Amino acid sequence: MADVNRGNRPLSPHLSIYRPQMTSISSIFVRITGNALLVAVVLIVWWLFAAATSADYFALANAVITSWFGVLVLVLSLWALWYHTLGGLRHLIWDMGYGLDVVTAEKMGWAMIIGSLVLTVLTLIII
Predict the structure, then answer these.
(1) Which helix (H) or strand (E) holds 59?
(2) Rg of the chain over CA atoms, in angstroms?
(3) Looking at the whole model, is its pTM more than 0.70?
(4) Quick one: DSSP state of residue 17?
């Protein structure tokens, strides 16, 4: 008969045992930034819809987008776009079989973070 006393057996290892690694953290943030980009897309589509609807509705949408909150969302979305793009490039490199050792993978993770911040600032300066 099966062992009914399952409470004495150890649980499988979980996040409390392992230290988060750069590869896992950067992969999680790639997924988060991909989903967060939907917020910016909805905001921009709403702004374009308001522009096509009426002047009063556009004034409301434009006031929201040009407010401090709207600018913050758009700047963070710009960073998310660069981070997500660099994450995609990293995965393309991995798919070709390069950079799979731990040291190179960690360097690529830091390159994604630093590169996305630098590219965001450069984009804001150019715009």
Answers:
(1) helix 55-65
(2) 22
(3) yes
(4) T
